[in-house]
Amino acid sequence: MGHDTDPTNPAPDAPALPTPVTRAGRDGLAALLARPERAVIALDFDGTLAPIVPDPDRARAHPDAVLALAALAPKVAAVVVVTGRPAGVAVRHGGFAGVAGLDHLVVLGHYGAERWDAATATVTAPAPHPGVAAVRAELPGFLDRIGAWHGTWIEEKGRSLAVHTRRAQDPQAAFDALRGPLADLAARHGLIVEPGRMVLELRPPGMDKGVALLEYVRDLGAGSVLYAGDDLGDLPAFTALDKLRSDGLPGVLVCSGSTEVTELSDRADLVVPGPAGVVQLLGALAAHM
Asked: pTM for this one?
């Protein structure tokens, strides 16, 4: 993490903001603080707002996440959660529904294929890809035939399926052994495999967090963007923000740090210590606006 900086007009008791380690990140943070009403705060869910846990069904947002988001959201153009989870699941696990201050929160689920708006409390989405149903029927027997490690299990995500290896005796070995065969299975049904932190997700192509972020930011006409993520699925969003910055839109890339994934920390302007660090950063931003 960088050292602390002194903003122009902080609140008297405002916590210090960390300094991005790159010039682009420092420029992005300055633009965000100068015109917060034009800023978009975009955030991954698992590993960023919620700690990673062995059972994804038990994942919940950090205890202070909703409070920090509710303090920040009224001061910026938009807060959007961009996640591979179904939008409704992220809303429930995040505790986002019906929270004062989060009236205009948007959750882009399934990498942007679904959208939940707090203003209407509804999810909109296209029809599911037919390949998902085909893989759903084939996957259990497929894993048995290739001798998947004990402890490997399937997560049903509605518009996609995920094979987790975190509970296996050797999670990394199971992950490495399954990656090729699952990619072949996905390709036969018109799907792709999205690798993550000890998880391989089989999902439809054509939509990722980068596409979702670009479309949302451009539709809103944002003046600056902060994106925070922790996993390989967030790399397209990092690339999208790099594209926006090359087009002249200031932005900040934040990595919710972990020892499992270094690709994001190597590219980030700012690295914070996991969801607790993300929540602390959001609270500091709110206090400095």
From this structure: 0.83
